[in-house]
Amino acid sequence: MKLTKTSVGKIEPQPGKQLLIWDSELRGFGIRVSPGGSKTYIMQRRIGRTTRRLTIGRADDISAEAARRRALSLAAKFAEGIDPVAEERKLRARAKTLKEAFDDYKAAPAKKGGSKGNTKKPQTIRDIDKAMRRFSDWLNKPVSEITGRMVKDRHAKLAATSPAQANLAMRYLRAALNHVIADCDDDDEPVLKSNPVDRLSRLNQWAEVKRAERCIPQDRIGDWVNAVQTSLGGIRCDNEARDALLFILLTGARVGEVLGNAKDGYPPLRWADIDLRNNVVTFRQTKNGTDHELPLSSQLVNLLVERKKIADEDFVFANRQGEMPTDLRAALNRIEVATGLHITAHDLRRTFATTASRIDISAFKLKRLTNHANGGDVTAGYVQVTTEDLRDAMQRISDYLLSSARTGDVVQLSEARA
């Protein structure tokens, strides 16, 4: 029938069945009637080998005459070989804002590491959100309007305050724009022909950021350990802070793997992950997305045996009341006053790794001890280092750090804990 206001008004829905009624004058123009009575104007034509069916609008919202005019416009595009669906998709893609690009990137699965294929971790999402704030005045701009010059100037401005944060913000910007480039059908015209952040590489403009190298000086290890043992009395959860610091020093663990991190959803280390029969600790779902298993040195076994006498039933570094340090800054500040050494929890991890290197533990074992990804090292991928392979290394590291030559008689980890 010819679709008019009158004829459309007379169409009755059929229960349980969708109706398609085509206009008798304009090929491909029709109306779709749902079982519930909803009526929607459509236009259907073939373009190449593809059949496109486009929604024009609901009959309640648009007149039959207006729908016909819209259908005629679409018919003209089809006649010229233009695919309106693809054209609309391109327009939407070119209009994608930087905020939308960042949001899409945050929602996309991780592309590498142990979390590959999984949703991004809360810490990563927070880092992306922080990077977005560096581009707050760009967020409503279409990504196609972000130029290499804009990137170059913004990076220089950010680097004047913090080179490391400038680099990090630009890496996340590059990743978000790369995701836009990748999320494009093969036959579509790309929204971005190149990533504007690549200009920093062409100009060699990435800021030079020196890796933090601070660790406990070799000749001060005894002083620091002595302060841990004797200087923390009176602070909240002093026994737990003391044992946690020594545990981090002797395992190279990240503080979040020991005390947990509520923001990232990491629980504190549990007794269920301490195997005192086989002398092994397992850190669950670590930073690189995998479980990390380490053998325990005899000193660590002694520490944990004594710890169990005064600890919570579930968490290793909680007291009988379930209380534990939320962080270790109060303890570290107290130790700094006693020793003059400004050392963070992560510096203890560096001290552990530096000690391993100093006593000639192989690079492959060191990667495994610190749970670092291979980073594209093909040879490392062939070398399989088991937990048992690390037992001697862990014992040697503990012996070195707690040897009487460095610590005198104060480091008796098997002594009862007050």
TrEMBL record:
Q: Mind telling me which Pfam families this protein's record contains?
A: Arm-DNA-bind_3, Phage_integrase
Q: Does the keyword DNA-binding apply?
A: yes
Where's the Tyr recombinase domain?
220-395
> GO MF terms on file?
DNA binding
Q: Which GO terms describe its biological process?
A: DNA integration; DNA recombination
Please indicate if the UniProt record lists DNA-binding as a keyword: yes
Gene3D superfamilies cross-referenced by the UniProt entry? 1.10.150.130, Integrase, DNA-binding domain, Intergrase catalytic core
Q: What is this protein called?
A: Tyr recombinase domain-containing protein
